[in-house]
Amino acid sequence: QEHEKAYWLFAPAAGLALLLPEGGYTFFELMWSFSMYLETVAIIPQAWMIYNQKQARKNVQLFVLLLAAFRICYIMSWFSGVTPAPA
After folding, report:
1. How many CA atoms lie within 13 A of 36 on its CB side?
2. Which of 37, 49, 58, 64 has CB atoms 3.0–4.6 Å from 16's, for a disulfide?
3. Is the separation of the CB atoms in 50 and 64 below 8 Å?
């Protein structure tokens, strides 16, 4: 039953990939955008579980918090269009 609750993450990730693809509407660009959005929202069930249990170890809580922060920063840099300098 637990894994069925996570299916609601697919629709928003697919919708965002269709609305905001990275480089165009090619198959690979859409799949890359979908995977990026899905990876970003996949942390939500883990954070929700930790919040509900209130017994998670501190290192697990810190890991999930830092992973969420990384994903938020990654998405923000992606939206800003910052590209790395050529080598």
Report:
1. 21
2. 37
3. yes
User: 33 to each of 4, 16, 51, 69, how far by Cα in Å?
Assistant: 23, 8, 28, 19
Measure the CA–CA gap between 30 and 53, rounded to whole angstroms: 36
How many helices and strands (H and E) does the chain possess? Answer: 4, 0
Angle (CA) 42 48 50, round 5°: 110
Cα three-residue angle 50-70-34, rounded to 5 degrees: 90
> How far is the C-alpha of 34 from the C-alpha of 14, rounded, in Å?
6
Report angle CA 67, 28, 83 to the nearest 5 degrees.
Answer: 55
Closest CA to 35 of 81, 65, 75: 75
